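WARN no homologs supplied; continuing
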Amino acid sequence: MTNREREIYQLLRENPMISQKEIADLLGIQRSSVAVHILNLTKKGVVKGKGYILSEGDYVLVIGGSNVDITGFPKSVLRLEDSNPGAVKMSLGGVGRNIGENLARLDISTKMMTAIGKDVYGQKIIEESRRIDLDMSQALVLENASTSIYLSIMDEEGDMKLALSDMDIAERIDTDYINKNAKLIRNASVVVVDANLNQSVLEYLFSNFKDVDFFVDTVSAAKSLKLKNLLGYVHTLKPNRIETEALTGIKVENEADAHKAIDVFLEQGVKQVFVSLGQEGVVYGSADHREKFQPKPIKMINATGAGDAFMAALVYSWINEYDPKKTLAFASCASALAISCEATINPELSEAKVNAMMADVYGIK
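OK structure emitted
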């Protein structure tokens, strides 16, 4: 949806019987413009029938972590076990929240289930979500709990050298919280889950919502192991080389190895897999298609948010019914925009910018 369509959609949610003139007056636009926007919403399946009955599946739901990222950048070659002159930046993070923000910046209506503390960092996360139109109205805001913090040190090439995470609050995303939001989960067009969730919660979520399309971010090799016996519930998986090895037991050194690992994932029930080989590209596999995509080189400033942007772009591509080649190009361009910025998420990320880069660099429209 466009921003204007989203404004109209919100008014219709609040009052399904509101007139087009009332909407026009509230938004300061012509009634004829409202009619056009409602027609577009109807064509998209968001609005249907008399009284502006709303389609309930017109959003993506993300369930996962939210935290503050504190990142250090050295001014020259990073020296371990020493004090390094550099710059320290703070931005909002968390795999789930990052994916949610990227989706919102790609103009996808997105809701978030997460846990944050009732502290200054938690308030910052809520304020930013309102600014970018990421719906966190169902988030757990907890007294006497600290919002998660992710502390990382980059090397002189902009790649992560060391990180510490304090994410104990993620344990508060439990089965009771899942049950209270069952309708929200069932009505989502796609549900994105990150492996920061407790394994028992992942098991409960997957086994009780079998009709949901789950896109899963493995987060890390250690956390990916939570998924080892749950792969049959996963629609889309995005592991890197190390996570792929941890989940399949196959040493991934080249494209052929990636295809062998993809075979294992598909045999266990995953619908589509995107295995990242770093600078060697991404290998895609599904039951009826295989594809290798090699992104063009780009100067890297901060690698932290690359995977989150890639996952958001995969969801965007699935919703827009892109073929595998276009999906890989779109996701790679979103990831490239992410790593070209010091912040975890590039504030310039947008649907238009990704499409423009995809056309300019790869000739794909």
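The longest strand covers residues 67-74.
OK
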